[in-house]
Amino acid sequence: MSGEDAPAQQQNDVDQKQETKPAEEPKTEPPKTESPPAGAAEAAATPEKVPEEETFTYRALVLTGYGGYDKVKLQVKKGKPALKAGEVLVRVKACGLNFADLMARQGLYDRLPSPPVTPGMECSGVVEAVGEEVTDRKVGDKVMVLNRFGLWQEVAVVPASHTFLIPEGMSFEEAAALPVNYITAYMMLFDFGNLRPNQSVLVHAAAGGVGIAATQLCKTVKDVTVFGTASASKHETISEGGVTHPIDYRTKDYVEEVRKISPKGLDIILDSLGGSDTHKAYNLLKPMGKLITYGSANMLAGQKKNLLAVAKNWYHQFSIHTLSLIQGNKSVCGFHLGYLDGEMELISQAMNSILSLYKEGKIKPRIDSTWHLEQVGDAMRKMQERNNIGKVILTTEPMPEEEKKEEPKKEDKKEDKKKDDKKKDDKKKDDGKKEEKKDDKKKEEPKKEEKKEEEKKEEVKKEEK
Amino acid sequence: MSGEDAPAQQQNDVDQKQETKPAEEPKTEPPKTESPPAGAAEAAATPEKVPEEETFTYRALVLTGYGGYDKVKLQVKKGKPALKAGEVLVRVKACGLNFADLMARQGLYDRLPSPPVTPGMECSGVVEAVGEEVTDRKVGDKVMVLNRFGLWQEVAVVPASHTFLIPEGMSFEEAAALPVNYITAYMMLFDFGNLRPNQSVLVHAAAGGVGIAATQLCKTVKDVTVFGTASASKHETISEGGVTHPIDYRTKDYVEEVRKISPKGLDIILDSLGGSDTHKAYNLLKPMGKLITYGSANMLAGQKKNLLAVAKNWYHQFSIHTLSLIQGNKSVCGFHLGYLDGEMELISQAMNSILSLYKEGKIKPRIDSTWHLEQVGDAMRKMQERNNIGKVILTTEPMPEEEKKEEPKKEDKKEDKKKDDKKKDDKKKDDGKKEEKKDDKKKEEPKKEEKKEEEKKEEVKKEEK
Asked: Does A324 touch chain B (CB under 8 A)?
């Protein structure tokens, strides 16, 4: 979230580049790469580097190159990061996963410096040290953090202005689930969208992180009708969450479904899909309607960059002439929190409103599942394959030894998906007990997820070092 | 303002098409066209037409073809228009001129049916008759009217829902100046723009009707900074009206001027110019900024359609990709009240808020000048040549005989413009006495305007019939 453009991180110029990477720490150990000779060469290139405190080590996830889920590796780093004025050191408890992280892994997100780099735009934790000139944070403060990247690790150094105090009663998981999704939904609905009573809103991927946040925020305004797309198995959950009209986009034409209920169209459309869906959204707007596009989920097809999907998205990219806007009395807006660098004042305003709503009990992040750092590949897969309802969270809690040794079963993918959906239904029923049971679930649930055996093996091998 | 698409008006299908032209009345007399034989043929085509009341006559301005100022002719019509359910008959007192009327005269505005047709989107007057099912208006009510066209005449029939009661203390001139400009400015600033305290707004043509309305509305919000473009001679007036930073667009680059004061750019830009200025506006937006484009004033160059200006405007027409919007966190909106057909609920909401602000003394339409129907050409010229500060109004009061006979002096155009600017300055100083002096001014002022002798002669000739 710093205003500077952090350049690609290079192994052999760690010292020089450190200043431009607020959430990065000195690399005292080269990351494990697939080719050991290269790693050795890099290590040799930084012989003069001496860590601040030899004994200080912490684990960090590192994107080692663009590609599949296995490109994010768990590494151990040495040396306590130094604090500059205005910064705080946070002992990270939980991290949020976002679509931008998935795009970044494929090399489709230009706000992340080139690999190797630690991803992660949001986390929660405890302030462990404060730099000079920091007056509003102290050691022991529970905070949530928003940053451009670098938060998927046990220890993160960030500007104090990028931290927000966690309110009473909010868990670390919730706090890690809140910043990106709720600020995004809030600014889209209440700044660009100017949402008012009696209006109608279409939320794509209504069971996703932003979708659930947007739905909850819509319900804070009187008589707002929410149309939400999601696969059928998620409809009960999103209806309970506030979606007035759930639409199964896999079996039905959502444009037709909306027109049946709201022939004149909609006041606000939150478009996370991009490509040809943006065109559909535009045509679905009422006069004075606002289309807010905030993603290109259509570009993500498969683990690795799918050139066809990317090209298709570009080909269908929505472009609008002012004459059409004038004659339609329409508004087209683009939003992405990752590009809102340096606008911490706007972000803080939104966050204050969001935290007030939380304290009033009007919004509450919904956690889909929590994963150990070692399981980041599976966590990303769950999100990318749209098997989540709510937020996918990483915890920095160490993974019990018995779980690590256990080899995941290779299961039929489709069958597993069905199981997964079923499991969600079960889970939903005892949502009330969720808070108490979280620890058990964390250890149990991820094991059921489908995995590719070879990937998992590779991951375990690397992270054990 | 009806929801239906009124087709081009044809002389020989008046009866059939009448239903789709809410503000038009039966043509009982063919309009005076340049070619008498055609007129005779048209008259022969409607022999069965019998006026409701033979004795009822009224004057109407009629656009007889696309072109210069002389294309709008004053004609006398016979027969009292019949009222359908839900309609009222208004005895018109004053009419507002709008940019869309100027575009329409050149054939550049597709919301006006083909000539011959009576233009005019707003007027004020007194209800003289009410149709069946009208419950909220009665004979004698003073109203302002908003309609798609057809209001530049002494008598207009409109749906009651298109009328708004004139509040206590508001003159007919003010009431005719209010609807289009204030609703446009209000919806742009408070619906699309979502204007909030401490924001910055750029208003192009800040001395024009919408410009003055927008400035006044900006000042109803705490600590809003208004940048306004206008020629230097108008700066004092617009500053007094609320513009924080007046910018002379004729001698300075407004983009540079804005950047000097607000390096990060602006929150809201109201773009009435179109073409290449829309590009400039887009680049001047802050993150979360809103560009609201609502006109193509750049297209109007000269009296008649200027194909080069139109082509240039098209060539430079702004087109935006969603990726740029996303990366910039920007919003681009288009607004035109003329295309907001059938959205009377939205319009009424805006109007109610506007009238409340008027009653609180927070806004007040500024009248630039008032002209007789016979002088519509000069009134249009004044507006098109940007010599007005505030609203140009037509009055239906009969023009005194002595004024009609007086031949206007042919003066040097440039010199006259200077005089005009000077006169404005003088006028501004005794703004307080304006209300009382209006009647005098009305008869005196227009005579000073520059006129092309030949045009004037032609106009007088036609309108006397």
From this structure: yes
